[in-house]
Amino acid sequence: MNHHRLFAVLAALSLAATPFAAQAALPVGAAAPDFTTQGALAGKPLPVALKALLAKGTVVLYFYPKAFTPGCTLEAHAFAEASADFAKAGATVIGMSNDTIDALQKFSTLDCRDKFTVAAASPDVIKAYDVNLIANGTDTGLANRTSYVITPDGRIALAHTDMDWHSHVDQTLALVQKLAKEH
User: Fold this and answer.
1) Of 104, 161, 178, 179, which is least surrounded by CB within 10 A?
2) CATH of 37-182, one of 3.40.50.300, 3.40.50.970, 3.30.450.20, 3.40.30.10
């Protein structure tokens, strides 16, 4: 993607009302695609494998377009502020974008406040989770803003797509807390 096009996409992402309309295609009950990738927590690189995370409990996997953009920064702050509540409910939060590992290391400290892991989403992972950000009919190579709650058996319990970051933490936390009470 050239710099002018990337700037146009990132500028549009910062607007409250965006021209992006997307729905998560993975339905509730579907198997979550497995992945292994590189991530960062508190500025340190680490491997991230969905199967290993699910062995510990529920996973909140949230995709975001680009580190250090206004909406993605605010969403990361919100997930960081709620990290103790997710942990109390037995859930692990993982943020994913197609950022470089260097950017993720910085983002994990500055915007995620060392509270949760962010990981690199390859084009294959973005496609498998059907979170391609389409702008003006063109795939940008970025992920749209979609949050999934994945149960320990590897099934999708929630798929929420909304380019406005505000509802992602509330919706995922409410379901994680409900699932914790049921078990």
Assistant:
1) 178
2) 3.40.30.10
> What kind and span of H or E run contains 95?
strand 91-97
**Predicted confidence (pLDDT) per residue in 11-68, tens digit:** 444 433 344 444 557 999 999 999 999 999 999 999 999 999 999 999 999 999 999 9
Q: Measured in whole angstroms, how far is the alpha carbon of residue 101 from the centre of its chain?
A: 15
Radius of gyration of the chain (CA): 15
Q: How far apart are CA 49 and CA 52, in angstroms?
A: 5
Q: Contact 146/126 with Cβ under 8 angstroms?
A: no
Q: DSSP string spanning 17-78?
A: S-S------S-TTSBPPP-EEEEEETTEEEEEEHHHHHTTSEEEEEE-S-TTSHHHHHHHHH
pLDDT tens figures, 163-180: 999 999 999 999 999 999
CA distance to 2, 10, 30, 66, 85, per residue, from 174 (Å):
40, 30, 20, 25, 10
- What are the sequence ranges of the domains in the chain? 37-182
